[in-house]
Amino acid sequence: MRSVTYSMSVSLDGYIVGPDGGFDWSAPDEEVFRFAIDEIRKVGVHLMGRRLYETMLAWETADQDPSLDDSMREWTALWKPLPKVVFSTTLSAVQGNAQLASGGLAEEIERLRAEPDEGDIAIGGATLAAEAAAADLIDEYRARVYPVLVGGGVPFFPQRERRVDLELVETRTFVSKVVYLRYRVAR
Prior knowledge:
5 helices
């Protein structure tokens, strides 16, 4: 069965976006970016909310930019054809290899898990991940923890009053002092 993963960059104090809406502190260096490229290779479909979808739209045409370096070209070549499901109540259409979700999150995940396709079902964006976590749909949490305190904003972990036991699967420390933590939900 396909795993559902939630992977984002996060500040040490637990936020994916700071109180001003900025996330410039999470710009990856080459080593962390290569790691993200390797991670996206294992994804079969990416679920996201409207805000993350709109943020990632730039990658749909990034390959037309002659100033892109090799890593960014490689990311673009992987991201563009990756199937994406966008959850939005305000969008009426999406671009690229994306489709609007036809059902609720649990129904979409159930449908995708039943398909014979390969690769993880990745969830991006804190709001969508919070909904998935509340329904106990996430199998793995993957955090790239940046050495910065942003003091507030959008939290990586949903604020639910529910205990979730985790098993440490992998850790890695990068030269930039970013720490990768991969946990599997203990079931």
